Amino acid sequence: MEKYKEIERSIIKKYRKDIWSKFVKAVIEYELIKENDKIMVCISGGKDSFLLAKCIQELERHGKYPFEAHYVCMNPGYNDANLELIKENAKIMNIDLEIFESDIFDIVADVEKSPCYLCARMRRGCLYNKAKELGCNKIALGHHFDDVIETTLLSMFYGAEVKTMMPKLHSENFEGLELIRPLHMIKENDIKAWVKSNNLKFLNCACRFTEKTANKEEESKRLEMKKLVERLRKDNPNIDYNIYKALDNVNLNCVIGTKSDGEYKSFLKDYNHK
Hints:
Mean pLDDT: 89
Low-confidence stretches: none
Largest sheet: 6 strands, mixed
Distance between the termini: 68 Å
Shape: globular
Strand order of the largest sheet: 3-2-1-4-6-5
CATH architecture: 3-Layer(aba) Sandwich
Number of domains: 1
């Protein structure tokens, strides 16, 4: 059996419960993919985005309704070894991948203040422009369950607000485009197990700047959240799921204030009328 067929089989058989079923559940529950959608699937080179591509590929082939997927990778300035690994993995996994160039790494190279923020914004803009060029109405990204939990905790601990990484969003600057996250319910450890089971190797971080500062990841706030959840899970194995579910079970009668479309509303507004 060819390697890519083994990989596909592992998703729908061995990891059916932990990966495939959760992928399908998210697609259905959050209405992420609809009939005749044209989706640009973004592959960064990491394990998450390649898994996303295979799941969408499987759904495109055997799903109940037709849609179209385009698999793309933006090269912001990866070194030759990283770029070659992406190409090799696309070949191994039988993904028809289009790689398009940008010079984002060169542009942000001399930025001292918040280069990561600027890089992220520019990358997102390039992807939206590419989606428009392809005539796509949706962009699929590979953020998973753990990303959702860590983002939620970061917002609470460092942003002083309760918000999360949504399963889908309307683009604010590109009319008619939606961003979707079909791996929203899939845990990172299950993705790692799938990678190990198939003896695959993906990019961990291809950023030119973190290559120079190896300790940067260890110092990151996101890693701090990851370690916190790991510690809490030792006492409560369901801690991450409970955080996830809480975001789908907000009791507005028991919060001090809410914000919608930038407008704040205190509980006092309704309290004094009861």
